[in-house]
Design brief:
single chain; 365 residues; alpha/beta; Rossmann fold; seven-stranded parallel beta sheet; six-stranded parallel beta sheet; 13 helices
Amino acid sequence: MIETGARLLLHVFPTFAVGGAQMRFAALANAFGDRYRHIVLALDGDYACAQRIAPNLPVRYEAIDAPKQATLGNVRRFRRRLRELTPDALVTYNWGAIEWAMANVPRLARHIHIEDGFGPEERAGQIRRRVLTRRLVLARSTVVLPSRNLWRIATDVWGLNPSRVHYVPNGIDLGRFAGPDRVPGDVPIIGTVAGLRTEKNVSRLLRAFRQVAEAMPARLIIVGDGPERSALATLSEQLGLARRVAFIGQVDDPSPLYRQFDIFALSSDTEQMPLSVIEAMACGLPVAATNVGDVMAMVAEANRAFITPLDETLLAGAIRTLAGDGTLRSRLGAANKAKATAEFDQATMIAVFEMLFDGHAPAPA
């Protein structure tokens, strides 16, 4: 299936479980068709996002032994594999794949590194060892970042040459989220779409929602799954919210669920350019969120008053104001939809990645 004359790209992910970076790659692979050949390697062996990629595309999935705390051995092992595969370009994703970037020094393949954000261990600041590693290992790489915040970190903190660092905002298939506006019901529905992991801090949203629920009738829908789900369900019961909160789990296409929401909420400790916020905007929803990454700049200017510090009471206040004013929700939702249409169309993102995969530098965004 993969033996064609097209360029071979080796993509190394810490995990290929369903997430923002993985879904972006799936969108690119589906759009490019047989324009490129792809090998996808997940260091944890999880290839759940493969189901998002159309069948019969030139995509192959491989496994490799990658023990924890074995950097030198891993680098030697990965360099041997690079020599065997001889890709036209190595594409690494986030800190978890940095050992593959190290294995490419001295250079065996053109290297693109895509950094989407940080785990909970770096939510309060950059770890010095990682800063120095990125500074050294990525100095001659093409570095792609989906947020202005990350671009500033890469150039100011990591010390990378700005000419090698490219801001490429995430984009979505806006058509998937087009549809009639929701007709408000008697009870406002707050929704979130998130991996249930520590850094998403959905517990903050539950505690904020309790404050909202004490003041007015409302419901909360949580779409997504992850290691925190059981603890969050327990917390929901402890807060007396079991009848008002629904855990939907992971769904392949969340677009119909967004259209059940009146308000989109995000309560993360760390993000950069969350796809869920773009999807909510494309569905014409107002957004109440913590001020992380580029979220403040992503939403329409009128919506920015509802982007709060990392505080459950302030987040609750933003949600409560939106829940109590249907006219305000409609106005902000329309502004967000217009901004998503103007700035976050998937076609623009695809065109820039095609240039990058072909080895060309895009114009500054």
